[in-house]
Automatic annotation (TrEMBL):
Organism this protein belongs to: Pseudooceanicola albus
Record domain ABC transporter: where: 8-246
Protein name per UniProt: ATP-binding cassette domain-containing protein
CDD domains on file: ABC_NikE_OppD_transporters
PROSITE patterns referenced in this protein's UniProt entry, alphabetically: ABC_TRANSPORTER_1, ABC_TRANSPORTER_2
Assigned protein family: Belongs to the ABC transporter superfamily.
Membrane-protein topology: Peripheral membrane protein
Compartments, as annotated in UniProt: Cell inner membrane
Top-rank taxon, per record: Bacteria
SMART domains xref list: AAA
GO cellular component: a single term: plasma membrane
Length: 259
Protein backbone atom coordinates (compact mmCIF):
# COMPACT_ATOMS: atom_id res chain seq x y z
CA UNK A 1 0.00 0.00 0.00
CA UNK A 2 1.34 3.41 -0.94
CA UNK A 3 0.70 6.26 1.49
CA UNK A 4 -1.71 8.91 0.12
CA UNK A 5 0.04 11.99 -1.15
CA UNK A 6 0.96 14.15 -4.06
CA UNK A 7 4.64 13.70 -4.87
CA UNK A 8 6.71 15.98 -7.06
CA UNK A 9 9.60 13.71 -7.93
CA UNK A 10 12.96 14.94 -9.17
CA UNK A 11 11.48 17.81 -11.17
CA UNK A 12 14.05 19.63 -13.29
CA UNK A 13 13.38 22.69 -15.40
CA UNK A 14 15.76 24.16 -17.94
CA UNK A 15 15.65 27.37 -19.93
CA UNK A 16 15.26 26.98 -23.66
CA UNK A 17 17.43 28.95 -26.09
CA UNK A 18 21.06 28.89 -27.10
CA UNK A 19 22.59 28.65 -23.59
CA UNK A 20 20.26 26.41 -21.55
CA UNK A 21 20.36 26.91 -17.78
CA UNK A 22 18.81 24.76 -15.05
CA UNK A 23 16.43 26.79 -12.92
CA UNK A 24 15.02 23.79 -11.02
CA UNK A 25 17.28 20.90 -10.17
CA UNK A 26 15.90 17.54 -9.06
CA UNK A 27 13.20 19.01 -6.84
CA UNK A 28 11.32 16.41 -4.80
CA UNK A 29 8.50 17.25 -2.39
CA UNK A 30 5.54 15.29 -1.08
CA UNK A 31 2.28 16.86 0.01
CA UNK A 32 0.02 14.92 2.32
CA UNK A 33 -3.62 15.61 3.16
CA UNK A 34 -4.10 17.85 6.17
CA UNK A 35 -0.52 19.17 6.22
CA UNK A 36 1.04 22.45 5.07
CA UNK A 37 4.43 22.31 3.40
CA UNK A 38 6.07 25.69 2.86
CA UNK A 39 8.54 26.17 0.03
CA UNK A 40 10.74 29.16 0.84
CA UNK A 41 13.70 30.80 -0.79
CA UNK A 42 15.09 34.10 -1.99
CA UNK A 43 13.69 35.86 -5.03
CA UNK A 44 14.64 33.91 -8.16
CA UNK A 45 15.35 30.65 -6.30
CA UNK A 46 12.70 28.82 -8.37
CA UNK A 47 9.61 28.73 -6.13
CA UNK A 48 7.09 29.79 -8.79
CA UNK A 49 8.80 27.61 -11.38
CA UNK A 50 8.26 24.60 -9.10
CA UNK A 51 4.52 25.34 -8.95
CA UNK A 52 4.25 25.93 -12.72
CA UNK A 53 6.16 22.72 -13.45
CA UNK A 54 3.92 20.71 -11.13
CA UNK A 55 0.81 22.11 -12.81
CA UNK A 56 2.16 21.80 -16.36
CA UNK A 57 1.98 25.54 -17.01
CA UNK A 58 5.62 26.55 -17.44
CA UNK A 59 6.01 29.91 -19.12
CA UNK A 60 7.59 30.22 -22.56
CA UNK A 61 11.37 30.03 -22.26
CA UNK A 62 11.25 27.13 -19.77
CA UNK A 63 10.84 23.39 -20.29
CA UNK A 64 10.52 20.38 -18.02
CA UNK A 65 13.74 18.44 -18.44
CA UNK A 66 13.09 15.67 -15.94
CA UNK A 67 10.92 14.27 -13.22
CA UNK A 68 7.33 13.23 -12.71
CA UNK A 69 4.28 13.73 -10.54
CA UNK A 70 2.77 10.85 -8.59
CA UNK A 71 -0.62 10.87 -6.96
CA UNK A 72 -1.04 8.22 -4.27
CA UNK A 73 1.85 6.34 -5.78
CA UNK A 74 0.66 6.42 -9.42
CA UNK A 75 2.09 8.60 -12.18
CA UNK A 76 -0.18 11.56 -12.95
CA UNK A 77 -0.18 14.11 -15.76
CA UNK A 78 0.16 17.64 -14.38
CA UNK A 79 -2.64 18.92 -16.62
CA UNK A 80 -5.03 16.26 -15.33
CA UNK A 81 -4.40 17.42 -11.76
CA UNK A 82 -5.30 21.06 -12.32
CA UNK A 83 -8.65 22.04 -10.83
CA UNK A 84 -9.80 18.57 -9.78
CA UNK A 85 -6.90 17.44 -7.63
CA UNK A 86 -4.97 20.66 -7.14
CA UNK A 87 -6.61 24.06 -6.74
CA UNK A 88 -4.46 27.18 -6.75
CA UNK A 89 -4.50 30.56 -5.07
CA UNK A 90 -2.00 32.85 -6.71
CA UNK A 91 -0.41 36.19 -5.97
CA UNK A 92 -1.91 39.27 -7.54
CA UNK A 93 -5.56 38.20 -7.59
CA UNK A 94 -6.38 41.03 -9.99
CA UNK A 95 -4.46 39.44 -12.83
CA UNK A 96 -5.92 35.98 -12.11
CA UNK A 97 -9.47 37.11 -12.95
CA UNK A 98 -10.78 37.81 -16.42
CA UNK A 99 -11.57 41.56 -16.39
CA UNK A 100 -14.51 41.07 -18.75
CA UNK A 101 -16.30 38.49 -16.62
CA UNK A 102 -18.30 38.85 -13.44
CA UNK A 103 -17.73 36.89 -10.23
CA UNK A 104 -20.81 34.81 -11.13
CA UNK A 105 -19.18 33.93 -14.48
CA UNK A 106 -16.01 32.86 -12.71
CA UNK A 107 -17.91 30.64 -10.26
CA UNK A 108 -19.97 29.19 -13.10
CA UNK A 109 -16.87 28.47 -15.15
CA UNK A 110 -15.16 26.71 -12.24
CA UNK A 111 -18.20 24.50 -11.64
CA UNK A 112 -18.68 23.81 -15.36
CA UNK A 113 -15.04 22.77 -15.77
CA UNK A 114 -15.62 20.20 -13.03
CA UNK A 115 -18.90 19.00 -14.56
CA UNK A 116 -20.97 20.39 -11.69
CA UNK A 117 -24.26 22.29 -11.78
CA UNK A 118 -24.81 25.65 -10.14
CA UNK A 119 -25.84 24.99 -6.57
CA UNK A 120 -27.02 28.29 -5.13
CA UNK A 121 -26.82 27.18 -1.51
CA UNK A 122 -23.30 25.79 -1.84
CA UNK A 123 -22.07 28.87 -3.67
CA UNK A 124 -23.63 31.08 -1.01
CA UNK A 125 -22.22 29.01 1.87
CA UNK A 126 -18.74 28.86 0.37
CA UNK A 127 -18.61 32.61 -0.25
CA UNK A 128 -19.92 33.29 3.28
CA UNK A 129 -17.30 30.85 4.57
CA UNK A 130 -14.54 33.06 3.22
CA UNK A 131 -15.98 36.12 4.94
CA UNK A 132 -18.08 37.56 2.11
CA UNK A 133 -21.12 38.67 4.04
CA UNK A 134 -23.43 39.37 1.12
CA UNK A 135 -22.58 36.89 -1.64
CA UNK A 136 -25.58 37.93 -3.78
CA UNK A 137 -24.16 41.43 -4.00
CA UNK A 138 -20.71 40.45 -5.14
CA UNK A 139 -21.73 37.85 -7.75
CA UNK A 140 -22.69 40.46 -10.38
CA UNK A 141 -19.49 42.46 -9.83
CA UNK A 142 -16.53 42.63 -12.22
CA UNK A 143 -12.92 42.45 -11.00
CA UNK A 144 -12.38 46.23 -11.33
CA UNK A 145 -15.28 46.79 -8.91
CA UNK A 146 -13.62 44.74 -6.16
CA UNK A 147 -10.69 45.25 -3.80
CA UNK A 148 -7.64 42.97 -3.96
CA UNK A 149 -8.62 41.40 -0.63
CA UNK A 150 -12.14 40.62 -1.84
CA UNK A 151 -10.78 39.10 -5.05
CA UNK A 152 -8.42 36.94 -3.02
CA UNK A 153 -11.38 35.75 -0.92
CA UNK A 154 -13.25 34.81 -4.10
CA UNK A 155 -10.14 32.99 -5.40
CA UNK A 156 -10.04 30.95 -2.16
CA UNK A 157 -13.79 30.28 -2.48
CA UNK A 158 -13.25 29.03 -6.06
CA UNK A 159 -10.52 26.71 -4.78
CA UNK A 160 -12.85 25.35 -2.09
CA UNK A 161 -15.76 24.94 -4.53
CA UNK A 162 -13.54 22.71 -6.63
CA UNK A 163 -13.25 20.31 -3.67
CA UNK A 164 -9.69 19.56 -4.76
CA UNK A 165 -7.82 17.81 -1.94
CA UNK A 166 -4.61 19.80 -2.56
CA UNK A 167 -4.02 23.53 -2.67
CA UNK A 168 -1.06 25.40 -4.12
CA UNK A 169 -0.87 28.88 -2.61
CA UNK A 170 1.80 30.94 -4.40
CA UNK A 171 2.54 34.13 -2.42
CA UNK A 172 -1.17 34.41 -1.58
CA UNK A 173 -0.84 37.65 0.39
CA UNK A 174 2.04 39.46 -1.30
CA UNK A 175 0.00 42.10 -3.09
CA UNK A 176 -2.34 42.90 -0.22
CA UNK A 177 -2.06 45.49 2.51
CA UNK A 178 -1.02 44.31 5.99
CA UNK A 179 -4.44 44.17 7.62
CA UNK A 180 -5.93 42.28 4.68
CA UNK A 181 -2.89 39.96 4.62
CA UNK A 182 -3.60 38.87 8.19
CA UNK A 183 -7.26 38.18 7.40
CA UNK A 184 -6.46 36.19 4.28
CA UNK A 185 -3.90 34.13 6.21
CA UNK A 186 -6.49 33.33 8.89
CA UNK A 187 -8.89 32.34 6.15
CA UNK A 188 -6.39 30.07 4.42
CA UNK A 189 -5.41 28.44 7.71
CA UNK A 190 -9.06 27.89 8.58
CA UNK A 191 -9.97 26.52 5.13
CA UNK A 192 -6.94 24.22 5.10
CA UNK A 193 -7.77 22.80 8.53
CA UNK A 194 -11.52 22.48 7.96
CA UNK A 195 -11.15 20.74 4.60
CA UNK A 196 -8.04 18.73 5.53
CA UNK A 197 -6.21 20.09 2.49
CA UNK A 198 -2.65 19.16 1.62
CA UNK A 199 -1.18 22.59 0.99
CA UNK A 200 1.96 23.77 -0.75
CA UNK A 201 2.61 27.29 0.46
CA UNK A 202 5.04 29.34 -1.56
CA UNK A 203 6.35 32.40 0.19
CA UNK A 204 9.40 34.47 0.92
CA UNK A 205 7.84 35.62 4.20
CA UNK A 206 9.03 33.56 7.18
CA UNK A 207 6.26 35.12 9.31
CA UNK A 208 3.72 33.44 7.03
CA UNK A 209 5.67 30.18 7.34
CA UNK A 210 5.67 30.34 11.14
CA UNK A 211 1.94 31.01 11.09
CA UNK A 212 0.80 28.31 8.67
CA UNK A 213 3.36 25.63 7.91
CA UNK A 214 3.97 22.23 9.46
CA UNK A 215 7.10 21.54 7.44
CA UNK A 216 9.46 23.77 5.45
CA UNK A 217 11.61 23.12 2.38
CA UNK A 218 14.29 25.70 1.60
CA UNK A 219 15.12 26.32 -2.03
CA UNK A 220 18.39 27.86 -3.19
CA UNK A 221 19.21 28.35 -6.86
CA UNK A 222 16.77 25.64 -7.92
CA UNK A 223 17.79 23.02 -5.35
CA UNK A 224 16.25 22.05 -2.02
CA UNK A 225 19.01 22.58 0.53
CA UNK A 226 17.10 21.75 3.70
CA UNK A 227 13.74 20.33 4.70
CA UNK A 228 12.56 20.19 8.30
CA UNK A 229 9.54 20.57 10.59
CA UNK A 230 8.82 24.27 11.08
CA UNK A 231 9.93 24.36 14.74
CA UNK A 232 13.27 22.69 13.97
CA UNK A 233 13.96 25.02 11.09
CA UNK A 234 13.32 28.14 13.16
CA UNK A 235 15.27 26.93 16.20
CA UNK A 236 18.15 25.09 14.58
CA UNK A 237 18.47 25.94 10.89
CA UNK A 238 21.25 23.87 9.33
CA UNK A 239 21.86 25.50 5.97
CA UNK A 240 23.26 29.06 5.62
CA UNK A 241 20.35 30.02 3.34
CA UNK A 242 17.84 28.89 6.00
CA UNK A 243 19.74 30.92 8.61
CA UNK A 244 19.81 33.92 6.33
CA UNK A 245 16.02 33.78 5.76
CA UNK A 246 15.33 33.45 9.49
CA UNK A 247 17.78 36.21 10.47
CA UNK A 248 16.23 38.52 7.88
CA UNK A 249 12.81 37.79 9.35
CA UNK A 250 13.97 38.35 12.94
CA UNK A 251 15.71 41.61 12.12
CA UNK A 252 12.44 42.90 10.65
CA UNK A 253 10.13 41.80 13.45
CA UNK A 254 12.33 41.51 16.54
CA UNK A 255 14.40 44.65 17.18
CA UNK A 256 16.55 42.87 19.79
CA UNK A 257 16.96 39.25 18.71
CA UNK A 258 17.86 36.94 21.58
CA UNK A 259 20.51 35.09 19.54
N1 LIG B 1 10.15 32.33 -18.69
C1 LIG B 1 11.40 32.26 -18.24
N2 LIG B 1 12.44 32.18 -19.08
C2 LIG B 1 13.70 32.10 -18.63
N3 LIG B 1 14.04 32.10 -17.33
C3 LIG B 1 13.05 32.19 -16.42
C4 LIG B 1 11.68 32.28 -16.83
N4 LIG B 1 10.92 32.35 -15.72
C5 LIG B 1 11.77 32.31 -14.66
N5 LIG B 1 13.04 32.21 -15.08
C6 LIG B 1 14.23 32.12 -14.23
O1 LIG B 1 14.07 31.02 -13.37
C7 LIG B 1 14.61 31.31 -12.08
C8 LIG B 1 13.55 31.05 -11.01
O2 LIG B 1 12.51 32.00 -11.15
P1 LIG B 1 11.18 31.92 -10.25
O3 LIG B 1 10.26 32.99 -10.72
O4 LIG B 1 10.67 30.53 -10.24
O5 LIG B 1 11.75 32.28 -8.82
P2 LIG B 1 10.95 32.63 -7.49
O6 LIG B 1 11.70 31.98 -6.38
O7 LIG B 1 9.51 32.28 -7.63
O8 LIG B 1 11.15 34.20 -7.41
P3 LIG B 1 10.17 35.35 -6.81
O9 LIG B 1 10.14 35.14 -5.32
O10 LIG B 1 10.87 36.60 -7.20
O11 LIG B 1 8.82 35.17 -7.45
C9 LIG B 1 15.10 32.75 -12.13
O12 LIG B 1 16.49 32.71 -12.37
C10 LIG B 1 14.38 33.32 -13.32
O13 LIG B 1 15.15 34.32 -13.93
Amino acid sequence: MTAPGLALQALSVTTTGPAPRRVLDDLSLTLVPGRVLALVGASGSGKSTAVSAALGVLSPGLRLSGGEIRLDGRPAAPKALRGRIVASVLQNPRSAFNPLRSMRDHVQETLRALGRDWDARRVHDTLSGVGIETPEQILPLYPFEMSGGMLQRVMIALALLSEAPYLFADEPTTDLDLVVQARILDLLADAQARHGLGMLLITHDMGVVARLADEVAVLDRGRIVEQAPVGDLFHAPRHPVSRMLIDAHLSLYDPEPAR
